[in-house]
Amino acid sequence: MPFTANRHFKANPRLFVAAQGMHYTTADGRRVLDGTGGLWCVNAGHSRPEIAQAIHDQVMTLDYAPAFQMGHPGAFELADRLKNMMPGDLDYIFYGNSGSEAVETALKIAIAYHRMRGEASRTRLIGRERGYHGVCFGGTSVGGIAPVRKFFGSLLPGVDHLPHTHNLEQNAFSRGQPEWGAHLADELERLVALHDASTIAAVIVEPIAGSTGVLIPPKGYLERLRAICDKHGILLIFDEVITGFGRLGSSFAVNYFGIQPDLVTVAKGITNGTVPMGAVFARKGIYDAFMQGPEAAVELFHGYTYSGHPVACAAALATLDIYQKEGIFDRAHSLSTYWEDAIHSLKGLPHVIDLRNLGLVGAIEFEPIPGKPGSRAFDCFLRCYEQGLLIRQTGDIIALSPPLIIEKSHIDQLFETLSSVIQTL
Ligand code: PXG
Prior knowledge:
The chain is built from 16 helices and 15 strands. With 425 residues, the protein is an alpha/beta fold.
């Protein structure tokens, strides 16, 4: 099982057999409120008939089309829809099947782009401590989670990391973006001085680090990263696998923060979690750099059997229709203040050393039990599940990312359950 305590789980399994709207149903027939949107992916709520119908119709019409040297209309229609949601000239889309594949694709495009422009020495990739970019070798290498890295050898060469931005002394209990920490972006200048800009292809960051416990970027931090990348000709990649598709109350973190990266990775909410799909957005200048040489020659030596899979495209188009028709992103935006107040109402409960939030994302950080890191939050996760609430635990942090169709009454229930469980920890 992925990222799971296998023996613990198998001794005491937690199985979902159905899902509808905001709720899962367990194998023993209990309803569980989904505080995590599956795994940050079910933004429009569970088991939407419109998406099911689109998937069914697609399988019955065109189940699969080869992705190499062939195409189908859905992939192009979806690319048009996606680019219209994304600001600036991030107008070109490359499809894969997951966030991990989107990340590999973006890293490879970044290196190849510099090569196409005659700067083949720009191969170095810069990630960030506590970053998560999926589980392939590239993503693991630029990622910054020690337990995820240490088992797998030396990973990719030529990778360095920025410091993470999490600092409870300065920023505990911040509402929204913390005030302190923009200067941490200046560490990129140090890495440039150390390695020389001519060796650096790209910097990849999550606008909000999700998996490692919801680390909200300090005010001004992302802006500074963009400025330093510009100064040195380094591509900036936003990994929007969790922030994409409304999580912050706008289509993407790109809109939310008003910063223009060069490449953007997405997955998860693109199909509302129904069919695996990932994608990379590239700016026009990047696409153009590849469109050289003989017209009948392949320009990018990269792709997957299931790039732009017709069924995934149909699911994505139906998902985007729902997002649009129901104004799901605006809804997330208008609920974000209620959400913020609700999460910060947990202040003062035992063991709670931080509460943080942005859009419809939240985190609760606990003081670790000495010698047993992670066990307090894992206990919280187990007890919440027993009480009918699904949350996500990482280290001693609880991450919350409910479907964006959440109602105020669900928010109340979610935090009432959490509050009563925390008092038993
Ligand atoms: N980038 C980011 C920023 C992610 O959050 C990936 C890449 C990889 O995506 P795939 O589709 O290959 O898993 C992710 C995935 C959690 C959790 O509970 C987060 C992810 C996956 C599973 C659990 O925080 N993020």
